[in-house]
Specification:
Shape: elongated
Helix content: 55-70%
Strand content: 15-25%
Number of strands: 7
Number of domains: 2
Structural class: alpha+beta
Length: about 400
């Protein structure tokens, strides 16, 4: 059974991260992304997906291993010798229970750290790619204390790294400040800044996540109402912080999968005031809702349930896989894989439904996350005992 289990440990994690593998390969080969950074990111993501793929590997290994032994009449010989099959399979179930315990311990001790590191590496990768952008590919910059801007260029010299036909779009420092314009307090005049330059360079600071743009022989156009001011310059340099999706509100907040068990408990007991969900994508929307009181975010409670529920599936799958292997007698990998996938789709489908219902406040959420383990375990145990008595 060790062979099929190890095969599952190779196949299932690869399936979970295959899309990321192709994406990172494209970034490294075609966009010049740092290879070591990509490998580190892939490793952290694969470790984070392990707690999902290990129960799959356990089920596949048990189905194929038990099925082959039953097809070879090994268990029939044991019955004829008076051996109780429940005692034969007890060590297997004990190993599955030990794997579940190790996964729960890993989810509590290591998983949040690996998920947080994967997020940090993602931001580092995005930041490293700023100097390797394709022509006319815009990226957002924090132009002035949360006011978003954009920058893009027409072409880049592959040898010198010099960019040509650079365009920067930013809100004006005078926007929303009537006093600075000498107007009435209720006056709201839209203003903006457009900077264009035939050539320039972009330099990055990996420690502060800031972008330094150095432009040459360009022009600055500032609009304010119906007026437009033009300023030409020989050289301009601006240092700008870069906007990332997780820092749009000016602060970084951990996602539930990045929190330790203690942080999740604290978040469940005392939800953060003014938490801004990620679906509010613009800076203006986030700042407008900064002080808004919203209902408690139940993602944190659901994350606590999944950290204990999904690893426990190893034990439930082992209890179910033994009687299924005895009945179906798998002798090749393909039928065992199909049977394992049917059980896996049903199990994770129920868990995902539980996560969705739990985030809406339904009591069915925790039941669908933890209940399948109980149902599959009891069903497998009953089938195992009956099968051993035949």
């Amino acid at each position: 059974m060790a062979g099929p289990f190890l095969l599952g440990m190779v196949v299932f994690p690869f399936v979970c991260v295959v899309q990321l593998v192709f994406r990172l390969a494209d970034l490294v080969l075609n966009r010049g992304a740092p290879p070591l950074l990509a490998l580190d990111m892939l490793f952290c993501t694969a470790v984070g997906e392990a707690y999902i793929s290990v129960p799959m590997a356990v089920l596949f290994g048990v189905l194929l291993g038990v099925g082959r032994l039953e097809a070879d009449r090994e268990f029939l010989a044991m019955r004829l010798c008076g051996v109780n099959l429940v005692g034969v399979f007890a060590p297997l179930v004990g190993v599955a229970a030990a794997i579940s315990g190790l996964l729960i311990w890993g989810n509590v001790a290591f998983l949040p750290t690996m998920n947080l590191r994967a997020t940090d590496l993602t931001m580092q990768m995005q930041f490293a790619m700023l100097t390797r952008l394709a022509p006319y590919e815009a990226f957002e910059i924090d132009a002035q204390k949360g006011s978003g801007g954009r920058m893009f260029f027409g072409e880049c010299d592959p040898h010198t790294g010099e960019m040509r036909r650079i365009t920067m779009e930013m809100p004006s420092p005078l926007k929303g400040s009537p006093a600075a314009r000498g107007g009435d307090a209720g006056e709201t005049t839209e203003a903006g800044v457009l900077i264009v330059a035939p050539r320039g360079r972009v330099m990055t600071d990996d420690e502060t996540f800031e972008l330094t743009v150095r432009l040459a022989d360009g022009a600055l156009y500032q609009s304010e109402g119906e007026r437009c001011t033009t300023v030409r310059f020989g050289e301009m340099e601006r240092t700008l912080p870069v906007l990332f999706p997780r820092t749009m509100t000016g602060r970084f907040k951990k996602a539930p999968q990045e929190m330790t068990l203690g942080e999740l408990r604290e978040e469940v007991r005392n939800p953060s005031a003014g938490f801004v969900p990620g679906r509010w994508s613009t800076v203006q929307e986030a700042r407008a809702r900064e002080g808004t009181q919203i209902r408690a975010d139940r993602r944190f409670a659901m994350e606590m349930y999944t950290r204990f529920g999904i690893p426990s599936a190893c034990l439930a799958f082992a209890l179910l896989g033994v009687p299924l292997g005895l009945r179906l007698r798998f002798t090749s990998r393909a039928p065992a894989l199909v049977a394992a996938l049917l059980v896996i789709f049903g199990y994770y489908g129920a868990v995902n439904c539980g996560l969705w219902l739990g985030r809406t406040g339904s009591v069915a959420g925790p039941l669908l996350i933890l209940g399948p383990n109980v149902v599959l375990g009891v069903l497998g145990g009953v089938m195992l005992v009956r099968g051993a008595r035949r």
